Amino acid sequence: MSKARNSAALIAGMLLLSACSTIGSLFGPDETIRVGEIGRSLQCGAQSADMSMQAFASADAVRAWQQTSGVELIRGDQSMQAGTYVLIQTGKRPTAGYGLVVAPEAPVYDRVVRLHATLFTPGADAMVAQVETSPCVLVRLPGPAWSGVALYDQSGKRRIQVKP
Hints:
With 164 residues, the chain is of the alpha+beta class. The protein has 2 helices and 10 strands; from the N terminus they run αβββαβββββββ. The strands form 2 sheets. Strands 1, 5, 6, 7, 9 and 10 form a 6-stranded mixed beta sheet that branches. The chain has a 4-stranded antiparallel beta sheet with strand order 2-8-4-3.
C-alpha cells in the first residue's frame, strides 16, 4: 500500500471511532449517577401549591437555608459529602397523603441530571387528615457541578427544571 492510502485508511478509521463515541450518547445517557436521599419532611413551608426545586452548591448552603426556613433536613452535625444538593418541594397541599420518592439513580444527558420521582396523591375515597402539608425531599448528586437538574414524574412528564 502506498503512503497516501495508509494515511487515508488511518484517517477513515479514526473518523469511524470518533463517530461511534459521539453516536453512543444519542441512544442513551452520557452516564448514570447515584442519587442519595438526605432528608424529607411533610412540612417544608411552601407558600403556594406550585412544585419547586432548588439547587445548593454545598451542605453548608443547605444549612444556611435551613436557618432561614425553619425546616431541618440535615440533622445537627450530620457529616455531609461534597456534591450538589437539590431540594424538591411538592407545594402546599390541603390534606395529608401527598408525597414523593426520588429514584436512587439518574441518567445524565449533556450535563443535565434527570431525576425521576414518583408523586403520591391521596385517592378520591381516601380517609386523610385534614391538615395542610407541604412535602419535600432533599437529595445529593455526586460529582462536579451540573449544568441543570430536571425532575420527571412517573408518567415521564418533565415537571420542573433548574440550573444550579
